[in-house]
Amino acid sequence: MAENRSQRRHVLLLAYQSFGVLFGELSTSPLYVYKSTFCGRLSHYHNEDTIFGAFSLIFWTITFLSLLKYSLFMLSTDDNGEGGIFALYALLCRNAKISLLPNQQAADEELSTYHSLGHSNRNTLSSPLKRFLERHKKTRTVILLLVLLGACMVVTIGVLTPAISILSSVEGLQVQDKNLHHGMVIVITCILLIGLFILQHRGIHRVAFLFAPIVILWLLCIAIAGIYNIIHWNPKIYWALSPHYIYKFFKAVGKDGWISLGGILLCVTGSEVMFADLGQFTASSVRVAFSFVVYPCLILQYMGQAAFLSKNFSAVPMSFYSSIPDSLFWPTLVMATLAASVASQAVVAATFSIVKQCHALGCFPRVKIVRKAIWIDHQIFIPEINWILMVLCLVVTVGSRDTNRLGNAYGIACMTVMFVTTILASLVINFVWHKSLLVGLLYFIFFGGLEIIFLTSSFVRIPKAGWISLLLSAVFMFMMYVWHYGSRKKYLYDQHNKVPMKWMLSLGSDLGVVRIPGIGLIYTELASGVPSTFTHFLTDLPAFYQVIVFVCVKTVPVPHVPQKERYLVGRFGPKSYRMYRCIVRNGYKDVQENESECEFENDLMMSVAEFIQLEAEGSGTVDGSVDGRLAVVRTSGKFGKRFEVSESDGIRENSYSSSPATVSSSKSPALQGLQTMYEQESPQFSNKRWLRFKLLDTSYNDPQVKEELMELLDAKYAGVAYVMGHSYIKAKWNSTFLKRLLINIFFSFLRKNCRSPAVSLNIPRISLIKVGLNYFV
């Protein structure tokens, strides 16, 4: 009983918190839905049945799409508690061979988060559609492009939502002051938009506790206003809950009613957020919040506005504020502006999330992703995207100057995202849930059919600023495609030009060069083989480090990889070579909280040391394998207990068990002095905690194990260097004109103007070695 009570409290707490994150966009739609619906030729129909029919359409649209599709169904299609377009795509990739991600390994399928509970695809007959998609590579490309289209529309929504929400809330000033020039409304809107994005930059965690109360008060405010209007103006409005009024509506207005659906669909904008940001909450808490608070409050508000308009049709251009009683006007205006700001920041944060996921899957240029421990869960910040969104918001606000024009573009973007979600969800029903193809087809016909009707109606509004969403999404889509195309060509080039292991073995344990003290981390996109970066380094320079670790940082199609399963470590070559391979696996939603290179070095060293001892305990072979199997070393019960570890604040020189007398650094005294000066002047080093490692006095069956561990500790003391390729990519001279245009112009432009790999991986410049390479793809 006590446990059930605690679970209910937890659900209610999450439901309360979800108001400030999930429902701001959906709850501000009453500001502009009726205005956008009656902006065309439908404004010539001045009768009660038209108003009742419009409200009936709104009621059933919210019921079918927001309540049934998203609240009841889509919240069940989560990927380990995460939602969104990429969650659906990841589910499909794990249950069907349609992934285009490089470096996929069989070991990835052993992750604890790889197989969803109750939906394992093992020992299950695949459907004909699944076999068809797996056989044809072009269909896999089509699915990826469909996912990218949805992602681009989400970014477009991140541009349009702040503009339409804040502009529609500020327009209420013109109801009280008839002489207020519309240009002043635009100026006020722009000032608020700038303040919104500056707040994003400074960190919304300082005021995040206010978001849920603001949205709840706003919902109660519009519900009370709706009840007042129903009682005061037209109590018969409840008759319009019958779908019969939809029939009467279309019978009376004909084609004009179909065109008006482009405004009706705005009542469900924001429903996708319930599913996209599910990871911060639970499905039950979101359902409670929407079904018992948001849904009834919205219905009461739309019903009240319809009752008011049925007696005051001339007030359509400002229907929301005109329906508010005079005594409540100013409090409502303030609450509307605050609710619009909350809705806008939530959508901007969701845009950061979708960009991060695109970047993780190799479909977006490298950006700086900021995540701090003091921030609220799942909150990230991308400076470049924040300022780009701000500029685009200001441009579309000043350029359109009208809520109706913004609504035309906004509706196309939102309904496109919904339609893409429907397609992917119908595939999930068949591939992941293993339901019959007919069930998935019925789902698509019902919800997809409704969305196609709304989409075709909204396309009529393309000449009236609807082209804005198409233009923005086309630009983002082109950028993502070019980046994915160029990155894949580079990966295939690396894959084709990797060095055979026989060549490495022919060089001997010293690799044909002088082995100097220290650890060299060779960053590569390859999960197997020797990258050309390494051989190019050996060819041009006569020395390399005593210990070599090939590091591959890759994304697997799961939302999160548990920390203890993040590192895959193995040996590369015979033991005498002192070469290892480490694959760092991240989920598409994983964000490391500004992990410093010191923490990464320590984790990596402990993982390699654990692998050395596990290998000795398991096989005891002396020479080792040529390319040994990888192991998830952190699952070992002895991990972290092999060394005596103590903290040493800011004392790098004395952080290891070996003494400077026995182990010399590979860096010259001048370079060591520069490094010390760099660490003293850099703020990220001021509070850094250095760890001191000491090998425990443990007896080993194989004396070579202790020798190898001591060499590892000595190399760690000598210093760690990061070796990365600095590539120049050009299309081959005999390539087609289109390929040369994409690679030489557009992809080259994106590479030059995005963050470098060292910045995105948080690698210190003082320890970085770049190896120049020319790629002809």
Tell me the count of domains: 2
Q: What's the CATH C level of the largest domain?
A: Mainly Alpha
The Rg value, from CA coordinates, equals: 30 Å
Sequence stretches where pLDDT stays below 50 over 5 or more residues: 619-627, 650-664
Morphology: elongated
Reported by name, the CATH topology of the largest domain is: Amino acid/polyamine transporter I
Query: How many helical elements?
Result: 27
Average pLDDT rating? 84
Helix content: 55-70%
CATH architect. name of the largest domain: Up-down Bundle
Distance between the termini: 65 Å
Classify the beta-strand content into a percent band.
Answer: 5-15%
CATH superfamily of the largest domain: Amino acid/polyamine transporter I
Major pleated sheet: 6 strands, mixed
Strand order across the biggest sheet? 3-4-2-1-7-8
Oligomer: single chain
The overall strand count is: 8
Structure characterization notes:
It comes from Rhizophora mucronata (Asiatic mangrove). Residues 14-505 form the K+ potassium transporter integral membrane domain. Residues 517-775 form the K+ potassium transporter C-terminal domain. The protein has 27 helices and eight strands. The protein has 777 residues and is an alpha/beta fold. The protein folds into two domains: 1-85 and 150-465, Amino acid/polyamine transporter I (Up-down Bundle); 498-619 and 627-645 and 690-776, no CATH class. The strands form two sheets. It has a six-stranded mixed sheet with strand order 3-4-2-1-7-8, sandwiched between helices. A two-stranded antiparallel ribbon has the order 5-6. Strand 1, helix 22 and strand 2 form a beta-alpha-beta unit. Helix 6 (128-135) crosses helix 7. The longest helix has 35 residues, at 462-496. The chain is elongated. The chain starts with a helix and ends with a strand. 44% of the residues are buried. The model is unreliable at 619-627 and 650-664 (pLDDT under 50).
